[in-house]
Amino acid sequence: MLYNIYDLKWDDEILEKLDIPKSILPEVKDTIDDYGFVDEKILGAKLPIHSLVGDQQSSLFGQACFIEGDCKNTYGTSNVPLVYIGEKTIKSDKGLLTLAWSFDNKPYYAVGASILTTGEVMKWLKDKIKLYDDNDKMTEEVKSLEDSNGVFFVPAFQGLGAPHWDMYARGMIIGLSSGVERKHIIKAGLDSIAYQTEDLLDQIEKETGIKVSNMKVDGGASNNDYLMQFQSNLSDLPIKRPLDTETTSLGVAYLAGLGAGVWENKEVIKDLWKSAKEFTPDRNKEKVKESYEDWKRAVEYSKGWMKK
């Protein structure tokens, strides 16, 4: 937060306000550079360190998102969608701009941020309130439903992250009627993962003017075919799940390999990326849009709950 990603230097104004001397801060290097060596005692060899990168940026690289509008989304306890936008910057009202990587002192940018509670909601439904006990059976049960019977689950357990940034929001299940069954609540929880992702994608498109072209997915919940199909329908995008979903580890390995000369350039990396399964929209757009509008109403009701 102290680094100015526009000017590529430590931010003098912030340092002054926080009374942090610049002299104690490290030199900032490119994503691929000489970072020293691994201690020989650790791995038995003095191995060079060729790259240093954040986890989500590494995932973006591991998913070979090198063209403007390419998107990756990590489905974990939280979700972190990032959209690659290349060399240009934007002024983001929601704090979504981030540095993707830099090569030869040339920065490349992405837009996105963390959605606080996504996969965690399913763990809560399973382990805390015992609505199901088997993931495969749960998915088949949810797939048998036409809809969630009017139920929406806003899992703001710690507030709402991107793009809402409301720490006073709290979780809410709304739309309950006498016809609602256990499986409708489960479906609403699973669907909330996709709805929250769409909230952020919608904000990204508004701020950048860039239409997301496709979404490459990774993380544990990306293995749920129902969720990936629902996300494809909701976002009206092809969803691509790679053969290797450990893309964070893969990304930094690619970057280090480029630094070591194992691969020549990013085009070679792009050719290494392989799809295991692709999901394309298969539902009526108007019906999907209607349910999304109801979701947005539910989110608004959840906001500010903890304010006194």
Which geometry do the CA atoms define?
A: globular
SS-derived structural category: alpha+beta
Mean pLDDT: 95
Oligomer: single chain
Number of domains: 2
Rg from alpha-carbon coordinates: 21 Å
Helix and strand pattern:
EEHHHEEEEHHEEHEHEHHEH
Total of DSSP H or I helical runs spanning 4+ residues? 10
CATH architecture of the largest domain: 2-Layer Sandwich
Strand order in space, largest sheet? 5-6-4-3-9-10-11
* Termini separation: 30 Å
GO molecular function, one term: ATP binding
GO biological process, one term: glycerol catabolic process
Protein name: Putative glycerol kinase
InterPro entries: ATPase_NBD, FGGY_C, FGGY_N
In a few lines, what is going on in this structure?
This protein has 308 residues and is of the alpha+beta class. It contains ten helices and eleven strands.
Features:
two-stranded antiparallel sheet; Putative glycerol kinase; Nucleotidyltransferase, domain 5; 10 helices; 2 domains; single chain; alpha+beta
